[in-house]
Amino acid sequence: MNYLEVNDLTVTYRTQGGPLPAVRGVDLTVEPGSKLGIAGESGCGKSTVALALLRLLPKSAVLGGRVLLDGEDVLTMKWGRLRAVRWAGASIVFQGAMHALNAVHRIGDQIAEPILLHGGVTRAEAARRAGELLEQVGLPAARAAAYPHELSGGQRQRVMIAMALACEPRLIVADEPTTALDVMIQAQILRLIDRLIGDHGISMVMISHDLSVLADTCDRLAVMYAGRVVEEGPAAEVFAAPRHPYGQALGAAFPRIGDPASRRNPRGLPGDPPDPAALPSGCSFRPRCGVAEERCAHVDPTLWPAGPGRRAACVRVLDGTVEAPAARTAPETAVEETR
Amino acid sequence: MTIRTDGVAGPVPETAPAILAARDLRVEFRGRGERAVARAVDGVDLDVRAGEIVALVGESGCGKTTLARTLLGLERPTAGQVTFEGRPLGHRARELKAYRRRVQLVLQDPNGSLNPRHTVYDAVAEGLRIHHGTTADERERVAAALSRAGLRPPERFFLRYPHEMSGGQRQRVVIAGALVLDPEVIVADEPVASLDASVRGEILDLLLRLRDDLGLSALVVTHDLGLAWNIADRVAVMYLGRIVEVGSVEEVLTAPRHPYTRALLSVLPEGRTGEPIILTGEPPDPTRIPGGCRFHARCQVLASGEAERAGIAERCRTEDPGILSAVPVAQVACHHATGQDGRGSPG
Amino acid sequence: MSTTEPAATPEPRPAPRSPGPVDGPEGATASPRRLARQRRRRALARFWRDYRANRAGLFGLAGLALFVLVALAAPWLVQPADLSVTRAPGLPYQPPSLDYPLGTDNFGRSVLDLVIWGSRVSLLVGFLATLVSVTLGALIGIIAGHFGGATGTVLMRVTDWFLVLPTLVLAIALATVLSRSVFTIILAIGVTAWPTTARLVRAQTLAVEARPYIERARALGGGHLHIMMRHVLPNVMPLVLAQTTLLVASSIIMESTLAFLGLGDPTTVSWGGVLQDARNAGAVSSGVWWYLLPPGLAIALVALSFTLCGRALEGVLNPRLRDRS
């Protein structure tokens, strides 16, 4: 039984210039206690997916598909139930810890607030619990009296994590939790997240542009491009041996120190992601793909089995694993098989 | 002190003279309260030789950006000096202006470092106009700089505004604006930190090619050790206002000797080998630099008792390991490392 | 994938707002000067497109155009001789009629003629006084913001001092001390109205100076003048422009106030002056509404037009306000 199950999620923003498809059919599953990483460039729709999981998107967004949290569809949930789910079912850790914290309240009060709202406890009890949570994230309980500006970036991120844990959620959505932090602080935060998740048996969805961080932290990895998942599988394998050309390019962007191949040889991916309002025909990665073929202009590949527990959306993967069925119809059945 | 010659040779001979150098450079800031003095740069000797890419690596707050700004003359050193081609840098307006024709800055955030009201043409031509006024060949030079920065055909970009371009293209415009004056040195402060991973490689590749094609020297300030591995010839690791380890990229990054460098390398997620050394806490405030070795309070060698066993724990706490000199050999400012192998102690 | 091909920069996606630069032969052969002209034309077109979307701004602009046209055409619309007190064409206090659409004043002059002629002085004073105050304010604001330190502090203290002085009292004092002329009024208004602009411009200057492109310009070797002229000024200009239109309205009101208080130049006709004449002649108590109302309405309408334009400009030029729409 999966704790989180996303089926064919679509998000389209209504804009003045017409509809803008940000997420175009995403399927994801997270088992209880497991960690899923979503990687991709800015604008690939990964943050939109994160927000859609808790229905935190602006009004201009039109959602489709299903987001099942413990069997309940978040997208059709009543408002009151959704509020309860946002605290106790799943909570979110944002990247900009400075802006996500209220500058004029003490951090202890900010952590205690959801406990007071949802727990039916006394003020003193909530404050005690806030102190406990601070200790858990590695800050002295006495820091509860501090204001956000008195903390460093890493400490603020710890406070954000304490807030996310306040109502003992079963799923944490972390959107770029370490992006603005130094490597050492990043390592501290990642280890903290890892420990807390293990202790509490929480599931996690972690969003980052940094494939290496995700590979290091998560069990499974999904790589997004232009609003779709283009590659998915066990984190270590996807990072070490990506099947999709985009996954390969993204992985190569993070050099391994000591690897002679990347010494004095930085690698990137030419070009920019496509404009969601004007996607290229066929495979949306085709214009930037180094191994694109003639047929890529006609076939829009969906996720296809690419080894045990792995899937990738590339016609070349299709060739390697199955005896060339019609590419347009076959992948649907393939998706069924891998579940 | 023994001079190592077995390091992997970079493209620049070790005897080449420094083009841009810092000598015992110190920069202090005094807060409003008068009493706390922040020693942002606390004694640094560093050389950038012609045609060499030096990476200055460190965490935020270690003084690396202040050091870069001081090298550019944007900050006045409290003590010590910056020399360019052997001559000390003067801080009179005319001297600085002449200097800034030859040493250029590339900033981290390409969104912010371009004036939103200037077109690409104006942004690139700005340096030319400052130093030469409007010249007849301005258009050719702007076009040449843009195409050298990888924006081709350049005419197509002339009239674009920054908001009409992607982050990578904007950073190329910033680099073109630096190239248009045919500088000898580029100082780049986190040139790819705000760019997507896929674009990162592109921009680094450009910097590397500029060195190969034009013989440009570069000082790249970064927190990203992978960047140093990707493009730099030499790397200097900075901690709390001082360089604690310096040497060729191969020496420092594959066989780090300073405990701080070792810790930094161990926590990199990509291709990890061995147990990560996660230092506790954060670097202290530059107003409160600890006595003795400035790293001793967080040092894993001292904490594990290894320094005690080597009989140097007392020195770690009380004796400053000193300032590393600018000679192009691997050096480390650590009592334990130098005591262990007896090489590369500061002069 | 290794990226050894240097020119691997594909055509970027089109920008959402503007259609993007046109490529082609003109882009390839044009001189920088022509490029600059082209660019300016395009920026202007974009500006006009944004401005046009603001209905209130269009009304303001239309009203403004009308008043300016009338003021410029006044010598043809009105015989200056008809404004003479001694040789007035009509009888005193005639109500509106076909001959005198807005009636006549206590000397028998046409009120319409007076209002038309008065627009010249009112607009002139409004524009020139604003020019003086905005120039002064922008200059002081930019210098104070750019240099900071002691210079900035001293300049801002002076500004604060002017800011807390009651404007009207200062203007009255100046107008009484100096000789009575239109230019005295301009000076009086100009000298008293600049501090708000200075404050505003200084705040904006500080915001601009904190941007990385200022650091880049300095690292490129740009001096104080370069940074102030090439970077700060273009970025505070929108603010100054919007401020200007708003100030013109208040300058015209100020001029009318001073003239109404009898501090204007008695030899010229201005709206405030007409109002004062009307009051002196007892128009208020005798119910001669056509003597009072037209100049009063003219002042209100012109001020309204400028304010509408100013608000619209503010909306178009300030990206933060614009993005919110």
UniProtKB/TrEMBL annotation, chain A:
Q: Which GO terms describe its biological process?
A: peptide transport
InterPro entries listed in its UniProt record: AAA+_ATPase, ABC_Ni/Peptide_Import, ABC_transporter-like_ATP-bd, ABC_transporter-like_CS, Oligopep_ABC_C, P-loop_NTPase
Q: Could you tell me which Pfam families the record lists for this protein?
A: ABC_tran, oligo_HPY
Location of the ABC transporter domain: 4-251
What's its membrane topology? Answer: Peripheral membrane protein
Cellular component terms (Gene Ontology): plasma membrane
Please give the superkingdom of this protein's source.
Answer: Bacteria
Q: Record's Gene3D superfamilies?
A: P-loop containing nucleotide triphosphate hydrolases
NCBIfam families linked: oligo_HPY
Record's protein name = Peptide/nickel transport system ATP-binding protein
Organism this protein belongs to:
Marinactinospora thermotolerans DSM 45154
UniProtKB/TrEMBL annotation, chain B:
Respond yes or no to whether keyword Nucleotide-binding is given for this record.
Answer: yes
BP GO terms, sorted:
peptide transport; transmembrane transport
Q: Which UniProt keywords apply?
A: ATP-binding, Nucleotide-binding, Transport
Query: What InterPro entries does the database record attribute to this sequence?
Result: AAA+_ATPase, ABC_transp_ATP-bind, ABC_transporter-like_ATP-bd, ABC_transporter-like_CS, Oligopep_ABC_C, P-loop_NTPase
Q: Where would one find the signal peptide in this protein? A: none
Gene Ontology MF term list:
ATP binding; ATP hydrolysis activity
Name any one Pfam family assigned in the record.
oligo_HPY
User: Where does the source fall among the domains of life?
Assistant: Bacteria
Q: Using the record's annotation, list all stretches that form the ABC transporter domain.
A: 22-265
Q: Which family does it belong to?
A: Belongs to the ABC transporter superfamily.
- What's this protein's name? Peptide/nickel transport system ATP-binding protein
Automatic annotation (TrEMBL), chain C:
Record-annotated membrane-spanning stretches: 56-78, 121-142, 154-175, 181-201, 236-261, 288-313
**Where is it localised?**
Cell membrane; Membrane
Q: Which GO terms describe its cellular component?
A: plasma membrane
Please name the Gene3D superfamilies in this protein's record.
Answer: MetI-like
Q: How does it sit in the membrane?
A: Multi-pass membrane protein
Q: Where is the composition biased (Pro residues)?
A: 9-19
Q: Which domain of life is it from?
A: Bacteria
Q: Name one Pfam family in it.
A: OppC_N
- The region called Disordered is annotated at 1-36
Residue ranges occupied by any ABC transmembrane type-1 domain in the UniProt entry: 119-310
GO BP annotations listed: transmembrane transport
Spell out the InterPro entries in the cross-references: MetI-like, MetI-like_sf, OppC_N
UniProt keyword terms in alphabetical order: Membrane, Transmembrane, Transmembrane helix, Transport
**Which SUPFAM superfamilies does the entry mention?**
MetI-like
Q: Which family does it belong to?
A: Belongs to the binding-protein-dependent transport system permease family.
Q: What name is this protein filed under? A: Peptide/nickel transport system permease protein
* Organism encoding this protein: Marinactinospora thermotolerans DSM 45154
